[in-house]
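In response to a reviewer's request, we include the raw inputs and outputs for one of the modeled complexes. The two entities were modeled together in a single run.
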Amino acid sequence: MADGVPTWEEVARDYGRFLYTVAYRLAGNDDDAQDLVQEALIRVRRGLERYEPGSLEGWLARIVTNVFLDEVRRKRRRPTSALPDDPEWVLPPSPAADEVSTGLSDDIQAALATLPEEFRVPVVLCDVADQSYEQIARALGVPVGTVRSRIHRGRRMLRSLLTEGAA
Amino acid sequence: MSGVPGPPEPWNEDLLSAYADGEVTAEQCALVEARLADSESTRALLAEIEAARDAVRALPMRDAPEFWARILDGTGLDATDLSDDTVIADAPASVVTLESRRASRLPRWVAVAGGAAAAAVIAAVVLVPGPKQVDPPVASFTDAHAIRDSLNSDAVSSLAPVALQAGFQR
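The model returned the following structure tokens for the whole complex.
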């Protein structure tokens, strides 16, 4: 890592799990997370020349988030799709295939996936990517107060969903 | 006027999450703590918020997918998969773009076949007529009937049942 700027290989080697975890928590499933992280890797490679040494994880989280939000916008523009040839594409993967079932983790992930993106994204950036409110505000282009409000409302929704699920 | 403090920040429930995350100013911190001291429901809400936050934070890290190993060992490089030529010049490994992955999941023929089927359905609905309009050759029927009856029987008598059905009266 010269001058604090990592090489692409270093990013891929050292931050693979981080990138993939953030992508998975945003997307909610492995297939979409793989799509996100591959696109993110391409953007990382393009952007490394412009990367200014700082919080590398924050920078990576911002890239994954941007890819995710681009994808959300794309799906909103084109909400319908033709029938897929792969049933796994439609049916949510079973917990056994997706991850070693951890019960509570599955419930939390499921609840997280049901949050609207405007709440899920700041919650994931805060509690999964460990970003400060200021970093999240910069990443999303919104005021810190908005981040604070969305994180709070997102957590309240999560709590409600988890309580309902347990009842 | 400078140096005069503004009005105190009003209570806002959003501050609870910020407080739990250590994202409050000293003034906000004092505001939250005063509220917590006075309000049982606020304390309960803070506990709920912290539980939700801790649940997400406790989610396990995910292992990188299988393709990551190929990226790291530099095998399987397929530059044509990359969407940006400036990127692929010295790309270290195979990276499949979002679009190409989508394409691999959804073959082009599926979209084409789906489109053709939809077009066929639309064409069938638009172009095929509804209940067929029959235009019987009335003139030729009546001529034939008249000829037959004039040759074989009394035309008026053979038409009588029809006349009755039609409400004709003598």
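As requested, we also summarize the result in words. Residues 87-101 of chain A have pLDDT under 50 and may be disordered. Chain A touches chain B through 58 residues (CB under 8 Å).
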